[in-house]
Model the fold of this input.
Amino acid sequence: MRVKTPQGEIVDLMTINLGPSHPATHGTLRLFAALDGETIAAAVGEMGYLHRGFEKMVEQGTYQQVLPFTDRLNYCSAMMNNIAFCKAVERMFGVELPERAVTLRVILLELSRMIDHLVCNGANLVDLGALTNFWYFFNPRERVYQIWERLCGARLTNTVTRIGGMYRDTYPGFEQDVLAVVKVIEDAVTEVLGLIERNRIFIDRTRDIGTVGAAEAISAGWTGPCLRAAGVDRDLRKDEPYYGYETYEFETVLGTTGDTFDRIMVRMYEIRESAKIVRQAVARLKPGPVNTADARLSLPSRNQVYHDMEALINSFKLIYEGVRPPAGECYDAIEAANGELGFLIVSDGGTNPYRIKVRAPCFTQWSHYPGMLTGSMVADVASSLGSINIIAGELDR
Amino acid sequence: MSAAADTACPAIQAGLTAEAILALLAPLGGAKDPADRWGLTVIVPREQLRAAMQLLRDGETTRFDLCLDVAGIDYLGYPDWRGPRFAVSYPLKSTVFRHRVTIKVQVDEDDASVPSLHDVWSSCDWAERETWDQYGIVFAGHPNLKRLLNHHEFVGHPLRKDYPCQKRQKLSVNDPMVDQLQAKLRALGYEILEQPAVTPGMPLTQKEIAK
Done:
Protein backbone atom coordinates (compact mmCIF):
# COMPACT_ATOMS: atom_id res chain seq x y z
CA MET A 1 0.00 0.00 0.00
CA ARG A 2 1.72 3.17 -1.22
CA VAL A 3 1.25 6.08 1.19
CA LYS A 4 2.58 9.53 1.90
CA THR A 5 3.74 9.70 5.51
CA PRO A 6 2.99 12.70 7.75
CA GLN A 7 6.63 13.74 7.11
CA GLY A 8 5.95 13.86 3.36
CA GLU A 9 7.88 10.71 2.41
CA ILE A 10 6.37 8.30 -0.07
CA VAL A 11 6.72 4.74 1.18
CA ASP A 12 5.26 1.34 0.50
CA LEU A 13 3.63 -0.05 3.62
CA MET A 14 3.41 -3.79 3.97
CA THR A 15 0.18 -5.10 5.47
CA ILE A 16 0.38 -8.17 7.62
CA ASN A 17 -2.03 -10.30 9.60
CA LEU A 18 -1.03 -11.55 13.02
CA GLY A 19 -3.48 -14.26 13.92
CA PRO A 20 -6.27 -15.27 14.27
CA SER A 21 -4.33 -18.48 14.93
CA HIS A 22 -0.86 -17.41 15.86
CA PRO A 23 1.02 -19.18 18.66
CA ALA A 24 2.06 -15.87 20.24
CA THR A 25 -1.49 -14.63 20.62
CA HIS A 26 -2.25 -17.45 23.13
CA GLY A 27 -5.77 -17.53 21.84
CA THR A 28 -7.61 -16.61 18.69
CA LEU A 29 -7.10 -12.90 18.24
CA ARG A 30 -6.44 -11.08 15.02
CA LEU A 31 -4.24 -8.08 14.52
CA PHE A 32 -3.95 -6.43 11.11
CA ALA A 33 -1.01 -4.08 10.82
CA ALA A 34 0.60 -1.78 8.26
CA LEU A 35 4.39 -1.96 8.51
CA ASP A 36 6.89 0.69 7.57
CA GLY A 37 10.03 -1.41 7.57
CA GLU A 38 9.95 -3.03 11.01
CA THR A 39 7.89 -0.28 12.58
CA ILE A 40 4.13 -0.55 12.94
CA ALA A 41 2.59 2.48 11.25
CA ALA A 42 -0.92 1.55 12.34
CA ALA A 43 -2.76 -1.55 13.48
CA VAL A 44 -6.34 -2.62 13.94
CA GLY A 45 -7.62 -5.52 16.00
CA GLU A 46 -10.44 -7.97 15.65
CA MET A 47 -12.06 -10.22 18.21
CA GLY A 48 -14.94 -12.64 18.46
CA TYR A 49 -13.24 -15.83 17.30
CA LEU A 50 -14.10 -17.46 20.63
CA HIS A 51 -17.55 -15.92 20.94
CA ARG A 52 -19.88 -18.59 22.33
CA GLY A 53 -22.83 -16.38 23.15
CA PHE A 54 -22.32 -16.65 26.93
CA GLU A 55 -24.80 -13.86 27.58
CA LYS A 56 -27.48 -15.51 25.42
CA MET A 57 -26.87 -18.98 26.87
CA VAL A 58 -27.16 -17.88 30.49
CA GLU A 59 -30.62 -16.43 29.83
CA GLN A 60 -31.86 -19.93 28.95
CA GLY A 61 -31.07 -21.64 32.27
CA THR A 62 -31.29 -21.04 35.99
CA TYR A 63 -28.86 -19.05 38.11
CA GLN A 64 -27.15 -22.22 39.29
CA GLN A 65 -26.69 -23.30 35.68
CA VAL A 66 -24.76 -20.11 34.95
CA LEU A 67 -21.94 -21.21 37.26
CA PRO A 68 -20.29 -23.79 34.97
CA PHE A 69 -20.36 -21.23 32.16
CA THR A 70 -18.46 -18.73 34.29
CA ASP A 71 -15.58 -21.23 34.54
CA ARG A 72 -15.01 -20.72 30.85
CA LEU A 73 -14.59 -16.95 31.06
CA ASN A 74 -11.08 -16.54 32.39
CA TYR A 75 -10.09 -20.19 32.40
CA CYS A 76 -6.67 -19.44 33.93
CA SER A 77 -8.39 -18.55 37.19
CA ALA A 78 -11.80 -20.16 36.88
CA MET A 79 -12.57 -19.96 40.59
CA MET A 80 -12.42 -16.18 40.55
CA ASN A 81 -15.25 -16.08 38.03
CA ASN A 82 -17.31 -18.52 40.13
CA ILE A 83 -16.80 -16.38 43.20
CA ALA A 84 -17.49 -13.09 41.39
CA PHE A 85 -20.77 -14.38 40.00
CA CYS A 86 -21.90 -15.93 43.29
CA LYS A 87 -20.99 -12.75 45.14
CA ALA A 88 -23.16 -10.67 42.80
CA VAL A 89 -26.17 -12.97 43.21
CA GLU A 90 -25.64 -13.19 46.98
CA ARG A 91 -25.60 -9.41 47.11
CA MET A 92 -29.04 -9.38 45.47
CA PHE A 93 -30.31 -11.78 48.13
CA GLY A 94 -28.60 -9.81 50.87
CA VAL A 95 -27.19 -12.90 52.56
CA GLU A 96 -24.10 -13.03 54.73
CA LEU A 97 -21.87 -16.04 54.21
CA PRO A 98 -20.55 -18.06 57.15
CA GLU A 99 -17.05 -17.06 58.20
CA ARG A 100 -15.46 -20.27 56.96
CA ALA A 101 -16.92 -19.85 53.48
CA VAL A 102 -15.60 -16.28 53.28
CA THR A 103 -12.12 -17.27 54.40
CA LEU A 104 -12.06 -20.22 52.03
CA ARG A 105 -13.07 -17.96 49.20
CA VAL A 106 -10.25 -15.55 50.06
CA ILE A 107 -7.76 -18.45 49.96
CA LEU A 108 -9.11 -19.65 46.62
CA LEU A 109 -9.20 -16.12 45.18
CA GLU A 110 -5.59 -15.45 46.09
CA LEU A 111 -4.32 -18.86 44.94
CA SER A 112 -6.18 -18.28 41.67
CA ARG A 113 -4.62 -14.86 41.34
CA MET A 114 -1.21 -16.43 41.88
CA ILE A 115 -1.64 -19.11 39.20
CA ASP A 116 -3.16 -16.59 36.79
CA HIS A 117 -0.10 -14.38 37.19
CA LEU A 118 2.17 -17.45 36.86
CA VAL A 119 0.60 -18.36 33.53
CA CYS A 120 0.61 -14.79 32.26
CA ASN A 121 4.22 -14.08 33.17
CA GLY A 122 5.47 -17.56 32.32
CA ALA A 123 3.96 -17.42 28.83
CA ASN A 124 5.03 -13.83 28.35
CA LEU A 125 8.62 -14.74 29.13
CA VAL A 126 8.44 -17.55 26.57
CA ASP A 127 7.43 -14.95 24.00
CA LEU A 128 10.57 -13.09 24.96
CA GLY A 129 12.67 -16.23 24.50
CA ALA A 130 13.14 -16.95 28.20
CA LEU A 131 11.84 -20.50 28.15
CA THR A 132 13.37 -21.65 31.46
CA ASN A 133 11.03 -19.46 33.48
CA PHE A 134 8.05 -21.20 31.98
CA TRP A 135 9.07 -24.49 33.62
CA TYR A 136 9.83 -22.75 36.90
CA PHE A 137 6.29 -21.39 36.89
CA PHE A 138 4.35 -24.31 35.49
CA ASN A 139 5.51 -26.85 38.05
CA PRO A 140 4.13 -24.91 41.04
CA ARG A 141 1.00 -24.17 39.04
CA GLU A 142 0.55 -27.90 38.54
CA ARG A 143 0.72 -28.35 42.33
CA VAL A 144 -2.12 -25.84 42.73
CA TYR A 145 -4.12 -27.82 40.19
CA GLN A 146 -3.55 -30.92 42.29
CA ILE A 147 -5.13 -29.09 45.22
CA TRP A 148 -8.06 -28.08 42.99
CA GLU A 149 -8.43 -31.72 41.96
CA ARG A 150 -8.64 -32.91 45.53
CA LEU A 151 -10.90 -30.02 46.48
CA CYS A 152 -13.57 -30.33 43.82
CA GLY A 153 -12.56 -33.03 41.34
CA ALA A 154 -11.83 -30.67 38.46
CA ARG A 155 -8.60 -29.05 37.44
CA LEU A 156 -9.44 -26.28 35.02
CA THR A 157 -13.18 -25.68 35.17
CA ASN A 158 -13.82 -25.97 38.86
CA THR A 159 -17.36 -24.70 39.59
CA VAL A 160 -16.21 -24.71 43.18
CA THR A 161 -18.70 -22.29 44.69
CA ARG A 162 -22.45 -22.37 44.99
CA ILE A 163 -24.78 -19.42 45.37
CA GLY A 164 -24.78 -19.11 49.16
CA GLY A 165 -21.50 -20.85 49.88
CA MET A 166 -19.22 -23.56 48.58
CA TYR A 167 -19.72 -26.79 46.71
CA ARG A 168 -18.34 -28.65 49.73
CA ASP A 169 -15.91 -28.29 52.57
CA THR A 170 -12.20 -28.91 52.14
CA TYR A 171 -10.48 -32.26 52.44
CA PRO A 172 -8.30 -33.16 55.46
CA GLY A 173 -4.83 -31.72 54.98
CA PHE A 174 -5.98 -28.85 52.75
CA GLU A 175 -4.28 -26.22 54.91
CA GLN A 176 -0.91 -28.01 54.82
CA ASP A 177 -1.15 -28.44 51.04
CA VAL A 178 -1.93 -24.76 50.58
CA LEU A 179 0.90 -23.58 52.81
CA ALA A 180 3.33 -25.93 51.04
CA VAL A 181 2.30 -24.76 47.59
CA VAL A 182 2.57 -21.10 48.59
CA LYS A 183 6.17 -21.74 49.62
CA VAL A 184 6.89 -23.47 46.31
CA ILE A 185 5.37 -20.57 44.34
CA GLU A 186 7.35 -18.01 46.32
CA ASP A 187 10.55 -19.92 45.66
CA ALA A 188 9.72 -20.01 41.94
CA VAL A 189 9.11 -16.27 41.90
CA THR A 190 12.44 -15.66 43.63
CA GLU A 191 14.22 -17.87 41.12
CA VAL A 192 12.60 -16.23 38.11
CA LEU A 193 13.20 -12.75 39.46
CA GLY A 194 16.84 -13.74 39.90
CA LEU A 195 16.93 -14.66 36.24
CA ILE A 196 15.17 -11.64 34.77
CA GLU A 197 15.11 -8.67 37.09
CA ARG A 198 18.63 -7.51 36.30
CA ASN A 199 18.92 -9.31 32.99
CA ARG A 200 20.15 -6.90 30.30
CA ILE A 201 18.35 -8.66 27.44
CA PHE A 202 15.07 -8.79 29.33
CA ILE A 203 15.27 -5.15 30.36
CA ASP A 204 16.14 -4.01 26.84
CA ARG A 205 13.20 -5.94 25.45
CA THR A 206 10.66 -4.64 27.95
CA ARG A 207 11.70 -1.22 29.31
CA ASP A 208 9.80 1.63 27.58
CA ILE A 209 8.09 -0.87 25.30
CA GLY A 210 4.31 -0.82 25.00
CA THR A 211 4.06 2.11 27.38
CA VAL A 212 0.57 3.12 28.46
CA GLY A 213 0.59 6.02 30.88
CA ALA A 214 -1.91 6.67 33.66
CA ALA A 215 -4.23 9.08 31.81
CA GLU A 216 -4.31 6.90 28.71
CA ALA A 217 -4.96 3.74 30.73
CA ILE A 218 -7.80 5.36 32.69
CA SER A 219 -9.49 6.67 29.56
CA ALA A 220 -9.19 3.23 27.99
CA GLY A 221 -10.95 1.77 31.03
CA TRP A 222 -8.01 -0.32 32.23
CA THR A 223 -8.17 -1.80 35.70
CA GLY A 224 -6.11 -4.21 37.75
CA PRO A 225 -2.37 -4.89 37.30
CA CYS A 226 -2.21 -3.04 33.95
CA LEU A 227 -3.55 0.14 35.56
CA ARG A 228 -1.36 -0.27 38.64
CA ALA A 229 1.68 -0.67 36.38
CA ALA A 230 0.99 2.90 35.22
CA GLY A 231 1.28 4.04 38.83
CA VAL A 232 -2.42 4.32 39.68
CA ASP A 233 -2.88 2.81 43.11
CA ARG A 234 -6.35 1.37 42.70
CA ASP A 235 -7.30 -2.07 43.89
CA LEU A 236 -10.86 -3.06 44.80
CA ARG A 237 -9.50 -5.13 47.67
CA LYS A 238 -8.23 -1.91 49.26
CA ASP A 239 -10.69 0.68 47.95
CA GLU A 240 -13.99 -1.14 48.29
CA PRO A 241 -13.07 -4.11 50.46
CA TYR A 242 -15.18 -7.25 50.38
CA TYR A 243 -14.73 -10.57 52.21
CA GLY A 244 -12.82 -8.74 54.95
CA TYR A 245 -9.84 -7.81 52.77
CA GLU A 246 -9.39 -4.69 54.88
CA THR A 247 -8.34 -6.92 57.78
CA TYR A 248 -5.51 -8.60 55.84
CA GLU A 249 -2.07 -7.09 55.71
CA PHE A 250 -0.82 -6.68 52.16
CA GLU A 251 0.45 -3.96 49.87
CA THR A 252 -0.69 -2.96 46.42
CA VAL A 253 2.16 -3.15 43.93
CA LEU A 254 2.70 -0.19 41.65
CA GLY A 255 4.74 0.47 38.55
CA THR A 256 5.97 3.86 37.43
CA THR A 257 5.73 4.22 33.66
CA GLY A 258 3.26 1.53 32.57
CA ASP A 259 5.57 -0.28 30.16
CA THR A 260 5.83 -4.01 29.60
CA PHE A 261 8.51 -4.30 32.27
CA ASP A 262 6.24 -2.70 34.88
CA ARG A 263 3.30 -4.90 33.97
CA ILE A 264 5.38 -8.06 34.31
CA MET A 265 6.92 -6.91 37.58
CA VAL A 266 3.61 -5.80 39.10
CA ARG A 267 2.33 -9.34 38.54
CA MET A 268 5.50 -10.87 39.96
CA TYR A 269 5.33 -8.90 43.18
CA GLU A 270 1.58 -9.31 43.47
CA ILE A 271 2.17 -13.05 43.71
CA ARG A 272 4.19 -12.38 46.86
CA GLU A 273 1.46 -10.14 48.29
CA SER A 274 -1.14 -12.82 47.56
CA ALA A 275 1.07 -15.32 49.38
CA LYS A 276 0.90 -13.10 52.47
CA ILE A 277 -2.90 -13.03 52.29
CA VAL A 278 -3.14 -16.80 51.84
CA ARG A 279 -0.99 -17.40 54.94
CA GLN A 280 -3.11 -15.05 57.04
CA ALA A 281 -6.31 -16.61 55.75
CA VAL A 282 -5.15 -20.16 56.45
CA ALA A 283 -4.31 -19.12 60.01
CA ARG A 284 -7.87 -17.80 60.41
CA LEU A 285 -9.59 -20.85 58.98
CA LYS A 286 -11.84 -22.29 61.68
CA PRO A 287 -14.23 -25.22 61.40
CA GLY A 288 -17.81 -24.32 60.65
CA PRO A 289 -20.49 -24.46 57.98
CA VAL A 290 -19.55 -23.46 54.42
CA ASN A 291 -23.06 -22.71 53.24
CA THR A 292 -25.52 -20.14 54.45
CA ALA A 293 -28.51 -21.43 56.38
CA ASP A 294 -30.81 -19.26 54.22
CA ALA A 295 -33.46 -21.60 52.83
CA ARG A 296 -33.84 -19.46 49.69
CA LEU A 297 -30.34 -20.50 48.62
CA SER A 298 -29.06 -23.60 50.38
CA LEU A 299 -30.27 -27.14 50.14
CA PRO A 300 -31.45 -28.68 53.40
CA SER A 301 -29.48 -31.67 54.70
CA ARG A 302 -30.44 -35.12 53.41
CA ASN A 303 -31.57 -36.07 56.89
CA GLN A 304 -34.03 -33.18 56.99
CA VAL A 305 -35.28 -33.94 53.50
CA TYR A 306 -36.15 -37.51 54.45
CA HIS A 307 -37.96 -36.57 57.66
CA ASP A 308 -39.49 -33.14 57.12
CA MET A 309 -42.09 -32.31 54.47
CA GLU A 310 -41.10 -28.60 54.35
CA ALA A 311 -37.45 -29.49 53.80
CA LEU A 312 -38.43 -31.91 51.04
CA ILE A 313 -40.43 -29.19 49.26
CA ASN A 314 -37.58 -26.72 49.72
CA SER A 315 -35.06 -29.15 48.25
CA PHE A 316 -37.40 -29.94 45.36
CA LYS A 317 -38.05 -26.27 44.56
CA LEU A 318 -34.37 -25.36 44.69
CA ILE A 319 -33.33 -28.18 42.41
CA TYR A 320 -36.19 -28.22 39.90
CA GLU A 321 -36.83 -24.50 39.77
CA GLY A 322 -33.77 -22.75 41.16
CA VAL A 323 -33.08 -19.68 43.25
CA ARG A 324 -35.11 -16.50 42.69
CA PRO A 325 -33.25 -13.26 43.33
CA PRO A 326 -35.52 -10.28 43.93
CA ALA A 327 -36.45 -8.33 40.79
CA GLY A 328 -34.09 -5.49 39.96
CA GLU A 329 -30.71 -4.63 38.54
CA CYS A 330 -27.44 -5.03 40.35
CA TYR A 331 -23.81 -4.44 39.37
CA ASP A 332 -21.18 -6.09 41.52
CA ALA A 333 -17.49 -6.58 40.95
CA ILE A 334 -14.37 -8.13 42.44
CA GLU A 335 -10.69 -7.52 41.86
CA ALA A 336 -9.86 -10.46 39.59
CA ALA A 337 -6.33 -11.31 38.50
CA ASN A 338 -6.75 -9.22 35.36
CA GLY A 339 -8.68 -6.29 36.78
CA GLU A 340 -12.25 -5.50 37.70
CA LEU A 341 -14.50 -8.45 36.90
CA GLY A 342 -18.07 -7.26 37.17
CA PHE A 343 -21.48 -8.80 36.63
CA LEU A 344 -24.49 -6.67 35.81
CA ILE A 345 -27.47 -8.86 36.64
CA VAL A 346 -31.02 -7.96 35.66
CA SER A 347 -33.55 -10.12 37.46
CA ASP A 348 -37.28 -10.24 36.79
CA GLY A 349 -37.87 -12.13 40.02
CA GLY A 350 -37.92 -15.46 38.20
CA THR A 351 -35.58 -18.42 38.25
CA ASN A 352 -33.75 -17.56 35.02
CA PRO A 353 -31.50 -14.52 34.79
CA TYR A 354 -33.19 -11.91 32.61
CA ARG A 355 -29.89 -10.45 31.51
CA ILE A 356 -26.30 -10.92 32.62
CA LYS A 357 -23.57 -8.65 31.31
CA VAL A 358 -20.01 -9.61 32.10
CA ARG A 359 -17.64 -6.72 32.56
CA ALA A 360 -14.49 -8.56 31.51
CA PRO A 361 -11.22 -6.80 32.36
CA CYS A 362 -9.61 -8.09 29.14
CA PHE A 363 -12.09 -6.29 26.95
CA THR A 364 -10.84 -2.78 27.61
CA GLN A 365 -7.23 -3.95 27.46
CA TRP A 366 -7.61 -5.60 24.08
CA SER A 367 -9.61 -2.69 22.67
CA HIS A 368 -6.72 -0.36 23.45
CA TYR A 369 -4.02 -2.76 22.29
CA PRO A 370 -3.93 -1.88 18.54
CA GLY A 371 -3.65 1.81 19.44
CA MET A 372 -0.85 1.15 21.87
CA LEU A 373 1.20 -0.57 19.13
CA THR A 374 1.41 2.50 16.87
CA GLY A 375 5.08 3.30 16.34
CA SER A 376 6.45 0.19 18.03
CA MET A 377 8.46 -2.63 16.46
CA VAL A 378 7.08 -5.90 15.13
CA ALA A 379 9.31 -7.79 17.55
CA ASP A 380 7.52 -6.17 20.50
CA VAL A 381 4.03 -7.16 19.41
CA ALA A 382 4.10 -10.49 21.22
CA SER A 383 5.74 -9.23 24.40
CA SER A 384 3.35 -6.34 24.87
CA LEU A 385 0.37 -8.58 24.05
CA GLY A 386 1.50 -11.07 26.68
CA SER A 387 1.91 -8.35 29.27
CA ILE A 388 -1.73 -7.20 29.05
CA ASN A 389 -2.85 -10.81 29.54
CA ILE A 390 -5.67 -11.29 27.07
CA ILE A 391 -7.71 -14.40 27.81
CA ALA A 392 -9.93 -15.04 24.82
CA GLY A 393 -12.55 -16.90 26.86
CA GLU A 394 -13.29 -13.81 28.87
CA LEU A 395 -12.76 -11.39 25.99
CA ASP A 396 -15.18 -12.97 23.55
CA ARG A 397 -17.62 -14.57 26.01
CA MET B 1 8.91 -1.25 41.80
CA SER B 2 7.71 0.29 44.98
CA ALA B 3 5.12 -0.32 47.61
CA ALA B 4 2.11 1.95 47.81
CA ALA B 5 3.44 4.08 50.62
CA ASP B 6 6.19 5.95 48.78
CA THR B 7 4.52 6.86 45.50
CA ALA B 8 2.85 9.95 44.18
CA CYS B 9 -0.55 8.35 43.74
CA PRO B 10 -2.79 9.70 46.51
CA ALA B 11 -5.00 7.44 48.58
CA ILE B 12 -8.60 7.16 47.51
CA GLN B 13 -10.87 9.83 48.98
CA ALA B 14 -14.37 9.50 50.33
CA GLY B 15 -16.85 10.03 47.52
CA LEU B 16 -20.22 11.66 47.18
CA THR B 17 -23.35 10.17 48.67
CA ALA B 18 -26.11 8.88 46.43
CA GLU B 19 -28.21 11.94 47.33
CA ALA B 20 -25.43 14.31 46.26
CA ILE B 21 -24.98 12.57 42.89
CA LEU B 22 -28.74 12.63 42.34
CA ALA B 23 -28.90 16.34 43.22
CA LEU B 24 -26.11 16.98 40.73
CA LEU B 25 -27.92 15.18 37.94
CA ALA B 26 -31.42 16.47 38.76
CA PRO B 27 -31.06 19.67 36.64
CA LEU B 28 -30.24 17.43 33.66
CA GLY B 29 -33.37 15.39 34.23
CA GLY B 30 -31.67 12.56 36.09
CA ALA B 31 -33.93 10.40 38.23
CA LYS B 32 -33.11 7.45 40.46
CA ASP B 33 -33.89 4.08 38.95
CA PRO B 34 -35.91 2.15 41.55
CA ALA B 35 -34.84 -1.15 39.95
CA ASP B 36 -31.31 -0.83 41.34
CA ARG B 37 -31.88 -1.47 45.02
CA TRP B 38 -28.25 -2.28 45.74
CA GLY B 39 -26.26 0.54 44.22
CA LEU B 40 -27.14 3.81 42.53
CA THR B 41 -28.52 3.87 39.00
CA VAL B 42 -29.63 7.17 37.53
CA ILE B 43 -31.86 7.33 34.46
CA VAL B 44 -30.85 10.26 32.28
CA PRO B 45 -32.81 11.50 29.25
CA ARG B 46 -31.06 10.69 26.00
CA GLU B 47 -30.72 14.36 25.01
CA GLN B 48 -28.80 15.09 28.23
CA LEU B 49 -26.59 12.00 28.18
CA ARG B 50 -23.44 13.64 26.84
CA ALA B 51 -23.82 16.67 29.10
CA ALA B 52 -24.38 14.44 32.13
CA MET B 53 -21.42 12.20 31.30
CA GLN B 54 -19.07 15.12 30.76
CA LEU B 55 -20.24 16.65 34.03
CA LEU B 56 -19.63 13.38 35.87
CA ARG B 57 -16.20 12.85 34.29
CA ASP B 58 -14.86 16.36 34.77
CA GLY B 59 -16.68 17.58 37.90
CA GLU B 60 -14.29 18.45 40.75
CA THR B 61 -16.31 16.43 43.22
CA THR B 62 -17.26 13.55 40.92
CA ARG B 63 -14.30 12.70 38.65
CA PHE B 64 -15.91 9.53 37.25
CA ASP B 65 -12.94 8.89 34.99
CA LEU B 66 -13.49 5.16 34.40
CA CYS B 67 -16.34 4.03 32.20
CA LEU B 68 -16.31 0.35 32.99
CA ASP B 69 -18.78 -0.95 30.48
CA VAL B 70 -21.63 -0.28 28.10
CA ALA B 71 -24.41 -2.80 28.60
CA GLY B 72 -27.59 -3.06 26.59
CA ILE B 73 -30.79 -4.43 28.09
CA ASP B 74 -33.88 -5.54 26.16
CA TYR B 75 -37.08 -5.40 28.23
CA LEU B 76 -39.26 -7.20 25.70
CA GLY B 77 -41.35 -9.61 27.75
CA TYR B 78 -40.17 -8.30 31.13
CA PRO B 79 -43.07 -8.83 33.54
CA ASP B 80 -45.35 -5.75 33.77
CA TRP B 81 -42.94 -3.59 31.79
CA ARG B 82 -44.37 -0.31 30.54
CA GLY B 83 -41.24 1.67 29.65
CA PRO B 84 -39.32 1.81 26.38
CA ARG B 85 -38.05 -1.49 25.04
CA PHE B 86 -34.29 -0.93 25.36
CA ALA B 87 -31.93 0.58 27.87
CA VAL B 88 -28.19 1.18 27.84
CA SER B 89 -26.33 1.03 31.15
CA TYR B 90 -22.96 2.65 31.83
CA PRO B 91 -21.35 1.60 35.14
CA LEU B 92 -18.92 4.38 36.10
CA LYS B 93 -16.35 4.65 38.82
CA SER B 94 -13.65 7.04 39.85
CA THR B 95 -9.93 6.62 40.47
CA VAL B 96 -9.99 9.62 42.82
CA PHE B 97 -13.10 9.13 44.93
CA ARG B 98 -14.68 6.04 46.37
CA HIS B 99 -18.05 6.21 44.66
CA ARG B 100 -19.85 4.50 41.83
CA VAL B 101 -22.85 5.27 39.74
CA THR B 102 -24.58 3.55 36.86
CA ILE B 103 -26.07 5.84 34.24
CA LYS B 104 -28.94 4.46 32.26
CA VAL B 105 -30.58 5.73 29.08
CA GLN B 106 -33.89 4.37 27.89
CA VAL B 107 -34.41 3.93 24.17
CA ASP B 108 -37.51 3.21 22.13
CA GLU B 109 -37.54 0.43 19.59
CA ASP B 110 -38.54 2.76 16.71
CA ASP B 111 -35.73 5.18 17.38
CA ALA B 112 -33.03 3.00 18.94
CA SER B 113 -30.24 5.54 18.95
CA VAL B 114 -27.99 6.92 21.69
CA PRO B 115 -25.30 9.60 21.35
CA SER B 116 -21.84 8.05 21.22
CA LEU B 117 -19.39 8.66 24.04
CA HIS B 118 -16.27 7.43 22.26
CA ASP B 119 -14.65 10.85 22.63
CA VAL B 120 -15.48 11.09 26.35
CA TRP B 121 -13.91 7.75 27.28
CA SER B 122 -11.93 5.82 24.70
CA SER B 123 -13.16 2.62 26.38
CA CYS B 124 -16.63 3.37 25.01
CA ASP B 125 -15.45 2.93 21.42
CA TRP B 126 -15.46 -0.87 21.34
CA ALA B 127 -18.03 -1.26 24.11
CA GLU B 128 -20.55 0.68 21.99
CA ARG B 129 -19.70 -1.46 18.98
CA GLU B 130 -20.50 -4.55 21.04
CA THR B 131 -23.83 -3.13 22.18
CA TRP B 132 -24.72 -2.21 18.60
CA ASP B 133 -23.76 -5.70 17.47
CA GLN B 134 -25.80 -7.46 20.15
CA TYR B 135 -28.85 -5.17 20.38
CA GLY B 136 -28.94 -3.04 17.23
CA ILE B 137 -28.85 0.18 19.22
CA VAL B 138 -27.18 2.85 17.07
CA PHE B 139 -24.58 5.07 18.72
CA ALA B 140 -24.94 8.34 16.84
CA GLY B 141 -21.59 9.90 16.00
CA HIS B 142 -19.54 6.72 16.41
CA PRO B 143 -16.76 6.71 13.78
CA ASN B 144 -16.64 2.96 13.20
CA LEU B 145 -19.88 1.31 14.26
CA LYS B 146 -19.12 -2.22 13.06
CA ARG B 147 -19.94 -5.58 14.54
CA LEU B 148 -17.48 -6.70 17.17
CA LEU B 149 -18.30 -10.13 18.59
CA ASN B 150 -20.32 -11.51 15.69
CA HIS B 151 -19.17 -12.08 12.13
CA HIS B 152 -19.60 -9.11 9.80
CA GLU B 153 -22.02 -11.11 7.62
CA PHE B 154 -24.25 -11.92 10.59
CA VAL B 155 -27.86 -10.80 10.21
CA GLY B 156 -29.84 -9.62 13.23
CA HIS B 157 -28.94 -8.79 16.81
CA PRO B 158 -28.63 -11.93 18.90
CA LEU B 159 -29.18 -10.60 22.42
CA ARG B 160 -32.57 -9.17 21.52
CA LYS B 161 -35.19 -11.24 23.30
CA ASP B 162 -36.95 -12.01 19.99
CA TYR B 163 -33.81 -13.53 18.43
CA PRO B 164 -34.25 -17.31 18.76
CA CYS B 165 -31.29 -18.83 20.57
CA GLN B 166 -31.30 -21.93 18.36
CA LYS B 167 -31.10 -19.97 15.11
CA ARG B 168 -28.07 -20.80 12.95
CA GLN B 169 -26.44 -18.71 10.22
CA LYS B 170 -23.82 -19.67 7.68
CA LEU B 171 -21.00 -17.15 7.55
CA SER B 172 -18.05 -17.46 5.25
CA VAL B 173 -15.79 -14.62 4.15
CA ASN B 174 -13.47 -12.89 6.59
CA ASP B 175 -13.52 -9.15 7.05
CA PRO B 176 -10.37 -7.89 5.29
CA MET B 177 -10.30 -4.84 7.63
CA VAL B 178 -8.43 -2.76 5.02
CA ASP B 179 -10.95 0.07 5.37
CA GLN B 180 -10.43 0.22 9.15
CA LEU B 181 -6.67 0.20 8.75
CA GLN B 182 -6.76 2.96 6.16
CA ALA B 183 -9.06 5.07 8.34
CA LYS B 184 -6.55 4.70 11.14
CA LEU B 185 -3.63 5.61 8.88
CA ARG B 186 -5.50 8.71 7.68
CA ALA B 187 -6.20 9.70 11.28
CA LEU B 188 -2.46 9.47 11.93
CA GLY B 189 -1.72 11.83 9.02
CA TYR B 190 -0.93 9.37 6.24
CA GLU B 191 -2.22 9.90 2.74
CA ILE B 192 -3.21 6.73 0.86
CA LEU B 193 -1.81 6.95 -2.68
CA GLU B 194 -2.55 3.49 -3.93
CA GLN B 195 -5.18 0.99 -2.87
CA PRO B 196 -3.86 -2.48 -2.08
CA ALA B 197 -5.12 -5.41 -4.08
CA VAL B 198 -7.39 -7.23 -1.65
CA THR B 199 -8.05 -10.85 -2.43
CA PRO B 200 -11.37 -11.70 -0.88
CA GLY B 201 -11.77 -15.05 0.81
CA MET B 202 -13.63 -17.83 -0.93
CA PRO B 203 -17.38 -17.61 -0.26
CA LEU B 204 -19.31 -20.76 0.53
CA THR B 205 -20.46 -22.74 -2.50
CA GLN B 206 -24.15 -23.49 -2.99
CA LYS B 207 -23.39 -27.06 -2.03
CA GLU B 208 -21.85 -26.03 1.27
CA ILE B 209 -24.73 -23.69 2.06
CA ALA B 210 -27.22 -26.50 1.42
CA LYS B 211 -25.42 -28.80 3.88
Notes: The mean pLDDT of chain A is 89. Chain A touches chain B through 79 residues (CB under 8 Å). Residues 54-395 of chain A form a domain with the Cytochrome-c3 Hydrogenase; chain B fold (CATH 1.10.645.10).
